[in-house]
Amino acid sequence: MLYKLSRVKRQFGSRTVLNIPHLELEARKVYALIGANGAGKTTLLNHLAFLDTPTTGNIFFRDENVVYDRSSLTRIRRQVVLVDQTPILFSGTVWSNVEYGLKIRQVPKNERGDRIENALERVGMSAFARSDVHGLSGGEVKRVALARALVLEPDVLLCDEPTANVDQRHQEIILKILQHANRVRYTTIIFSTHYLSQSRRLADRTILLQNGSLSDEMGENSFEATILKKTTTDPVLILNGNCRFQLDGDYETENDHDTIRVHLVPDKIQITTVSGDDRAGCTGTIINISSEGSVVRLTVDMGVNLCVILDNSTYQQKHPLVGQSVKLRFPREAVIISPIRSD
User: Whole-angstrom Cα distance, residue 124 to residue 116?
Assistant: First the structure.
């Protein structure tokens, strides 16, 4: 086992920011950490990078109980690299930034060139090798930071919200870099994100955090619900006993009215504005709109509050407004169902 956490807690005074009774992570896998701001994602990543010490509990790395002394930490930290959400580059060129870690680790100069060129090629930044870092965009800075990590050939690459605050093009590039590192180099990838869609695309396992603890919930738009199957029309999703939404397609449940857990994927929900008396179907009212980099987040009151995420181009095209009536549609890929655990 690559990592095992046993009864790990991190406390600041009387406040517990991380509480992981048990967690095991295998080598050569991709893991996604999902949770709201303050859920404990960054704290957990810092512990997995051995940059923070648990208040209580034990972390095992490759079946070895981690001892927090300098010599032990130096040895295991060489196998793990963390890329921060807002990486800081040193003054100078892209090349010198990527070379820095190799110098610190005393890699011979005649070996550095090929490794740097390879790392820059993997992140698509070869043409910027001699460019000054001060002229780079936010997405390019993140790609250089990834090259600076990958050039060290780590066994584990930890990334704190790697696609935050970059445009859609760079989000796609960064996700492909992580995917390549795992599939071709067999690097274990552990990354945090707000987007379940990224987890579904890349991760072998999704780890859900809430208030510093592992959770069975799937984050926002997660509810206990029932699905009413009909023979003549599409099934109906019932939330909170009385909020009814028409679904597209068929869904596997044991019986009609079985209680399930449902997650409505925010960036897969389709939205159209409602005009006049056209209020048939799943209609609601927009109560909040916020911009988050390359996407826009809407909160829609449908009897329950639902989050809908639009990319900027879709938002500009539809131009929804607070107070406006809208209709939501839930295609098959927008609905994830799972049974309720009975302990």
Answer: 12
Is residue 295 within 8 Å of 310, Cβ to Cβ?
A: yes
Structure tokens at 147: 């090259």
Neighbours of 53 (CB within 10 A): 12
Range of the domain at 127: 3-214
User: Where would I find the H helices in the chain?
Assistant: 41-48, 70-77, 94-104, 109-122, 138-150, 168-183, 196-202, 312-318
Shared domain check, 129 and 104: yes
CATH classification at residue 106: 3.40.50.300
Query: Does residue 233 carry a pLDDT above 80?
Result: no
The amino acid sitting at 192 is S
- In contact, 113 and 75? CB cutoff 8 Å: no
The phi and psi torsions of 168 (rounded to 5 degrees) equal -65, -35
Please state, in angstroms and rounded to a whole number, the distance separating the CA atoms of residues 281 and 22. Answer: 44
Q: How many domains does the chain have?
A: 2
Lowest mean pLDDT across 147-161, 186-200, 223-237, 292-306: 223-237
Claim to verify: residue 34 and residue 168 sit in the same structural domain? yes
* Cα 161 from Cα 340, distance rounded (Å): 29
Q: Which amino acid is at 267?
A: D
pLDDT tens profile 319-334: 999 999 999 988 877 8
Q: What are 141-198's pLDDT values in tens digits?
A: 999 999 999 999 999 999 999 999 899 899 999 999 999 999 999 999 999 987 777 8
The pTM of the full predicted model, rounded to 2 decimals, is 0.70
